Amino acid sequence: MAQTARSVARQRAERARLARERAARRARRIRTAWWVVAAAPAFVALLVLIRVAIPDAPTGGGADSRQLSSAVIAALRPDPSTLDSVGRGQGVTPPTPIADQPPLTADGKPLVLYVGAEYCPFCASQRWPLAIALSRFGSFTGLTASRSASDDVYPNTATISFHGSTYVSEYLAFQGVELATNERQGRRYAPLDTLTPEQEAVMNTYNAPPYAAQAGSIPFLDFGNRFLQTGASVSPQLLVGLSHDEIAAELVSNPDGPVAQAILGSANAFTAALCVLTDGQPGEVCDSPAAAAYQAEVGG
Amino acid sequence: MTQVARTGPAGRGTTATRSDVAPAWAVPASLALALVGLGLSIYLTIEHFTAPGSLACPVGGAVDCAQVTTSPQSEFLNIPVAVLGIVFFAAMLALCLPMLWRRMDRRLWQARMAVAGIGVLFAIYLIFAELFIIEAFCLWCTAVHLVAFGLFAVVVLASAMADPSPFDRR
Fold first, then answer.
1. What is the distance in angstroms between the Cα of A141 and the nearest Cα belonging to chain B?
2. B29-51+63-161 CATH choice from 1.20.1440.130, 3.10.20.30, 3.100.10.20, 1.25.40.340
3. Strands annotated E in chain B
4. Does pLDDT of B50 surpass 70?
5. Residue in A22, A36, A218 closest to B56 by CB
6. Which of A70-74, A241-245, B102-106 has the weakest average pLDDT?
C-alpha cells in the first residue's frame, strides 16, 4: 500500500517536472520568437538610418563639356540624301495622330511642344531625331551636350539638351521644356525649366488617359495638337556606351547601322508629321522621299 | 475539445482536433494578412503589366510607384516581383487555413515559418533596392512589405505559443 502511494507520488512529481520543463521550453520559444520578430523591422530601420546618413552621390553625366562639338552640330543637319535613303528606318515608333482638337499654336505658327528632363534616358534618345527633324524647318542656337542620369536605366546616355536653346523657323514654333537636370537634389533631380500655364494645360489634357496610358510620363511631344508622342520613338538601348561624337559618326557615316536607322528613321517620321502642320512647306523637305516614308501613318 | 486523433507517428502526420494548438488570434490574423497581401500583389501585377511602354520615364520623386514598379528591380530572374508576391501570398493563404493550423505536423509548421521567412527576407531586399538603388518609394509596395512583416510575426509568434507545441519531442 505504502509502495503504491510512493509510486503514485513519484509519477505525480515526474509529471509536474515534465510540465515545468515544457512550460520553460515554451517560454524560451516565445522569448526567441519576439527577438526574431523584432529583428526584421530593426534591420530595416538600420537600413533607413544608413540611407539617411550617407550623402547622395553626384549623378550627372560626368565632366563632359556642355558645348556640342562641330561633328555633333553637323550630324543634327544630315545630308538630305542620307535621310531619303534611310526612309522608314528600323526600330521606330511614329507619332500618333489625334483628330478634332483645337490647333496648338504660338506666334501664329503651329507649335511643337517637347516636355522631358535631362535625367531621363528615354528623353535622351528622343532628342536626337526631334532636333534633326526640326532642323529641316528652321535652326537651333544654344543646344548643349548632356547625358541622362548615371543612376537610372541606360545610364549616361549621350544626348543634347533643349534647356536654354532657341529655335527659329518661318514655319513652326518650338518649345522645349527640360523639367529637371541629371543631378540629384535629395531624393529628386534638381528642377530646371518650369511649365507655363499653357504648357501645363496641354500636359494635363494630352499627356493623360485616354491619350496616354499613364499621366505625366516623359518624354512627351505634342505636334500642334495633331500628333502626339508619349514615350520615346527610339530606344536608348541603341546608344548605350556611345559618346556624342560616336553617335554623330554613326549618323553621318553608317546610315545602314542600327543607330542611324532608328534616329534618322524617327526623324523622318517627325518630318512627315511636321509637314502636315506646315501644309507641306518647305517643298524641298516635304516632297522628299524621307517625308513620304511615314505618309501612311500621318495621313498627310 | 481535448481529444487528439493520432494518424501517424508521434509528431508527424498527426491530426489534433483540439482548436487551441495555435493561439486563437493566429487563424484570423494570418488569413486576413494573406488575403490583403494577395489583393495588393494582384493590383501591383496589373500595374506592372499595364504601365506605359518601357520607353518612358515617370516624372520622378521620392514616392513614385511607376518608378519602382517599372525599375529593373521590379523583376527577379525575369519574373515580376509582383507575380512572386501573388505566389507567396497564395502559398501563405493555403498554409494558414484553419484546418492546417490545427494539424500537429511539425513539417507543416516548419514549412509555414520557412515560407513566411522567405517572404520577409525578400521584402527586406526590395526595401534595400528602394532605398539604395531605385531611390524612390511606392506606397503600395510598402503596404505589401508591411503585410509580409505582419504575416511573419503572426506565424513566428503563433508557432512559439502553440500549446501543445508541434516542435516538442514526444
1. 27
2. 1.20.1440.130
3. 4-5, 15-16, 75-76, 79-80
4. no
5. A218
6. B102-106
- Would you call A212 exposed, middle or buried from its count of C-beta atoms within 10 A (0-12, 13-18, 19+)? buried
Number of H helices, E strands in chain B: 6, 4
Helix axes B106-128, B81-95, angle to 10 degrees: 150
List, for residues A177-203, the tens digit of each pLDDT value. 999 999 877 767 889 999 999 999 999
Q: Beta-strand (E) ranges in B59-140? A: 75-76, 79-80
User: Hey, which of A24-38, A61-75, B27-41, B42-56 has the most confident mean pLDDT?
Assistant: B27-41
Within 10 A of A284 (CB to CB), how many other CB atoms are there? 10
* Contact of B129 with B29, CB cutoff 8 Å: no
Of B55, B131, B157, the CB nearest to A122: B55
The tens digit of pLDDT for each residue in A144-180 reads 999 998 877 788 899 999 999 999 999 999 999 999 9
Q: What is the CA radius of gyration of chain A?
A: 31
At residue A220, the 3 state secondary structure works out as strand
Across the range A248-270, mean pLDDT stands at 97
Mean pLDDT score of chain A, rounded to an integer?
Answer: 91
Q: How many helices (H) and strands (E) does chain A have?
A: 10, 12
β-strand pairing of A109-116 with A173-178: parallel
Question: What letter would DSSP give residue B132?
Answer: I
Q: Is the peptide bond before B164 cis (omega within 30 degrees of 0)?
A: yes
Taking CA atoms, what residue in A is nearest to B127? A44
Which residues are CB-contacts of B125 (< 8 A; sequence separation ≥ 6)?
Answer: none
Q: Do B52 and A217 touch (CB under 8 A)?
A: yes
Question: What is the ipTM score, two decimals?
Answer: 0.75
Closest residue in A to B52 (Cα) is A213
B146 is written with which cell numbers?
508591411
Q: A27 CB contacts (<8 Å, ≥6 apart)?
A: none
Estimate to the nearest angstrom the gap between the alpha carbon of B62 and the chain centroid.
26
The x, y and z cell numbers of residue A224, run together, are: 500642334
Q: Are strands A166-168 and A139-141 parallel, antiparallel or unpaired?
A: antiparallel
Closest CA to B149 of A30, A35, A41: A41
Distance CA(B90)–CA(A260), nearest Å, equals 48
Taking only Cα atoms into account, the Rg of chain B, rounded to an integer number of angstroms, comes to 19
* Contact state of A33 with B159 under an 8 Å Cβ cutoff: yes
Contact (CB<8Å) A187/B135:
yes
In whole angstroms, what is the distance from residue A109 CA to residue A198 CA? 15
Contacts made by residues A39-43, CB under 8 angstroms, sequence distance 24+: A40/B120, A40/B124, A40/B149, A40/B152, A41/B149, A43/B124
